[in-house]
Amino acid sequence: MRNLPESSTLTFMTVLLGIFMVCTAVGQTVTIEKKKDVKKTSQALDYAMVHVKGGCFEMGDTFGDGLSDELPAHTVCVKDFSIGKYEVTQRQWRAVMKSNPSYFNKCGGDCPVEEVSWDDVQEFILKLNKKTGGKYRLPTEAEWEYAARSGGKLEKWSGTSDEQKLGEYAWYDANSGNSTHPVGRKKPNGLGIYDMSGNVWEWVQDVYKHYADAPDSKHSRKHNGSVTRGGGWKGKSKDLRASNRFYVQPAHRYSNQGFRLARTR
């Protein structure tokens, strides 16, 4: 059997080594770029988190004009936590999920992501935490209301109790032009958090139940939807109230439904 000349063997091995090195370099470059992309997203979310000092507050309708599922107002205590300064944006969603499901996808990367179900959001959080080692989650309903009301203050909307000033804090049917808007363009509430009233409804972690849930209550265990809060771009002022509650099936998606992240301190 004839063997390749030594010089040919050397050349062949050199070529193989070169191909291997190029493939390795390309693979490393792609991996590095992916890690950079997710790291930037994580850093952006980190930078936009607001620390909320825990405390006790009266959760529910404290103004006397709410719906039955906002009653009774009751004392709730929350521990320290962090919550997103802004709603999660289309750019941040795309960096993790490599897609943009938003109906208003021409609005821009700084507009809130929408058309995302509660189930979709859980997948987003799972991927984000796996890639970054973070401990992001949705806020609980109590945490959300506490933060929306500037740390449990008696605020009707997030940042104000004066309906004449609501447009300074929120995008809703009176000023939205039937569309979402880039996050952070209105005034923040007392904790420096933006858009907790209006722009898009926000998923929270809880399954819906009536505050007065009891075996003899007509509301008791009737629903299994996921709670959503805050009102959106096509809502009326009453929908944007900090105590207002709504529930949606966890697989459903809407163009006025988004979310913001939370994290335990």
CATH architecture: Alpha-Beta Complex
**Total helical segments:** 4
Would you tell me which CATH topology applies? paralog of FGE (formylglycine-generating enzyme)
Query: How would you spell out the order of helices and strands?
Result: HEEEEHHEHEEEEE
Task: Give the total of domains.
Answer: 1
| Alpha carbon gap, first and last residue | 72 Å
Identify the overall geometry.
Answer: globular
Average pLDDT score = 87
Q: Tell me about the biggest sheet?
A: 4 strands, antiparallel
Name of the level-1 CATH class? Alpha Beta
Share of helix, binned? 25-40%
Strand order of the largest sheet: 1-4-10-5
Strand content: 5-15%
Keywords:
paralog of FGE (formylglycine-generating enzyme), 265 residues, 4-stranded antiparallel sheet, 4-stranded mixed sheet, 28% helix
